[in-house]
Amino acid sequence: MTEFSQKQDRIQALLAERKLDALLLRRVSSFAWAMCGAASYVNTATTNGEAALLITPSGRYLITNNIEAPRLEQEEKLAAQGWEFRVTPWHEPQDTVAELTQGLRLGADRPYPGATDLSGELARRRANLTPEEGERFRELGRLCAEAMDSAVRAVRPGQTEYQIAALLAHQAESRGVQAIVNLIATDERIFAFRHPLPTDKKLDRYAMLVLCGRRWGLVCSLTRFVHFGRLPDNLRRKAQAVAQVDATFIAATRPGRSLGEIFRRGMGAYAEAGFPDEWRLHHQGGPAGYEPREYVATPGSTDVVSVGQVYAWNPSISGTKSEDTILVGEAGNEVLTAIEHWPTLLVTVNGQTFARPAILEML
Questions:
Q1: Short-list 250, 254, 267, CA closest to 323
Q2: Domain 131-362: which CATH class?
Q3: What is the pLDDT of residues 156-200, one digit of tens each?
Q4: In terms of pTM, does the model score above 0.90?
Q5: Alpha helix positions (H), 103-258
Q6: What CATH number belongs to 3-127?
Q7: CA dist 201 → 150, 168, 360 (Å)
Q8: Closest by CA position to 40, among listed 60, 10, 67
C-alpha cells in the first residue's frame, strides 16, 4: 500500500469512527500530511493554506483559486493523484465547500461553520508517521543539523541578534529548509525569556539559536548555544542538569509508554538535579510531525508512544536548554538532529549513556 493510500484509509477510518460523511482539510500541516509533502501555502506563517482538500462519499476535491491551481497541478502533480480541481477566480467569492457538502455531516481540521472539529484527532494521525515520512525526517534532521552547525560557527561577538537570525535563516533556506521558528537570544536575554524573538541587541559572550525547520511539510526542532570565553561554573552546572533531564525524557520515550508517565519522569529528573520548579516555566515538548509539536505532553497525557513516531523534547533551566528531534525505533531512539563533532555531555540514565549537546565554548 502506498503512503497516499494509507493516508486515505486513515481518513476514511476517522470518518467512520465519528459517523461523518465528509472531511475538510484547510491547515497547511494537514494538506502536506494528506498529500505526502505537498505545499499549499504562500505566506509561510499562515495556518490555513491557499488550497483546501475535501473528501466526500462521491469524490476527492482540491479547492483553490486560479492563482494557485497551475502550480498545484504542474509542480505538485496533484491532479495525477486523482483529485478533482475546483478552481474559483481569485476575484469571485464562491462557497464551493457548501455546494459540495450540502446535506452531509462534515468534519474539519479546525473550527468551521457547521462542521465537527477534528483538530485533535487529526494531529494524532499526523504524528503517527509512515516509514516514508520517517525517511524524510532523517533527511530533514541532517539538513537542520548542518544549518545550525554552520550558523553557530559563524557567530561572533558584536553581531546583533537580527544578524545571527539572518545567519541561521540563510543556512537553513540555502538547504531548502524553511526556518519557520528562528529564535535568538544573547547574554542576559537567554535567562529572561523562553521564546526570545531576535532584537538589535549585540552579542557579548553567550548566544542561543533555536530552529524549527520545515521541508516536505515536516518540522524538525533543535537548539544550540555558543559561549565566547570560559563557561562560568554556574552555567556549566545548569547545562549538565538540563542534559540529565533531556536524557531522562529521551530514555523514557519508548513504545507503549504514556506521555504522562514520561513527563512525570522528567519532573523527577528536574527535582533530582536541584531545579524542581523549572518545568513550570515552559512546556517540555512532545510528538513532532507537520507542526513543531502536534500536541504537547502534560503530566496527565494519556497518549502512548509508538514505533516510528518523532519527538522533540525541550527541557530548559533558566539560561540553558537541551533540544533535539528523535525518531522512536524498535530497538532504541535515533537522534535525527545530532551535529557531527559538536561537544557533548555524557549522561547516564538507568544504565544507558546518552550524548547530549554541550555549550560550544570558543576560547
A1: 250
A2: alpha beta
A3: 999 999 999 999 999 999 999 999 999 999 999 999 999 999 999
A4: yes
A5: 119-127, 131-152, 161-173, 188-192, 233-252
A6: 3.40.350.10
A7: 21, 16, 21
A8: 67
